[in-house]
User: Fold this.
Amino acid sequence: MKQKTNGHLAALFTVTVWGATFVCTKTLLRHFTPVEILLLRFTLGGLALCIASPGKMPLKSRLHELYFVAAGFSGLACYYLCENIALRYGDASLIGVLVSSAPLFAGIFGIFFLGEKLRGGFAAGFAIAMTGIVLISLGSDAAHIQPKGLALSLLAAAAWGIYSPLTRKIADLGYSALGATRRIFLYGIVMMVPAALFDGFRISAVLSMGRIEAANLCFLGLCASAVCFLTWNYAVGILGSMKTCAYIYLSPVITVILAAIILRERLSGQAVLGIMMVLAGLALSEWRPREKGLKQHGAI
Assistant:
C-alpha cells in the first residue's frame, strides 16, 4: 500500500510540473528554436542523470535494447519535437489540452498491439474527446491555434501513447527506474542531434540568453526532464501505464491556469466547451465500474 501511495504521489508531482512546461517552452520560443530547446533541455537532463547514476546498467538480453531505442524515439525525440513545434502555432493552454489525449492513444495501441480488451466507456470517451478537439479546431481564430498546431499536438499525444507501454515493459523486465531513464535519455539525445544540425543549431543563442531563459531552461532540463522522467517511469513501474496516464488529465488544467496568469492567454466560449469535452472524454475512457466482490488491491 505504501509503494502504491508513493507511485500516485510520483505521478501527481510529475504531471503538475509538466503542466508548467508548456508555459516555459512558450517563453523560450521567443529566443530559441523548438529544436534548440529540445537538445539543450535533454542534454542538461541527461548529464544530471549520468552524474546521479554514473555506473553501467548491463542488459539482460540484447533484444531489450530495442525497447530503450523505441522509448527514446517515441517519448523524447518524437513527442517533444512535435510538442515544441506545435507551440509555434497555438496557445500553450490549448496545446496542453490536446496533448493530454495521450491516454486515448495508449488505449488504442494497447488494443491493436497488446491484445487488450476494449472497455465500454473507451469508445464513448474517445468520441466525446474527438468532438471537443473539433470544436477547438473550428474556433481557431478566437482560440489561437492553427491546423499545424492541432496536427502536431495529436501526433505528440500518439507518440506518448507508445512511450508509456514501453516503459511499463522495461520495468517488468526488472530494470531500475534510474538506469532505464538514463539509457532512454541517451538514445533520445542521439536522435535529436541530426534534427538540430539540420535545423541549424545556434551557439550564439546559447551565449546570448538572459537570466529568464536560463532559469526556464534549467527548470525544463533538471526538474521537468531528469527528475520528472524518473518519477514518471517509477510511477509506471508501480501503477502500470494506463493508470499512470490517467494523471495526465490534470496537466492541461494546470497549463490553462498558468497560461492565463503568465502569458495572458484568453479562450473563447467554444474553446472552453471543447476543452471540457476533451477532459470529460478522457475521464470517461478510463472509467471502470467496480465489480461486486472485487478486492481493492485487485482492481486496475
Notes: Residues 291-300 have pLDDT under 50 and may be disordered. The two ends are 14 Å apart (CA to CA). DSSP finds 14 helices and no strands in the chain.
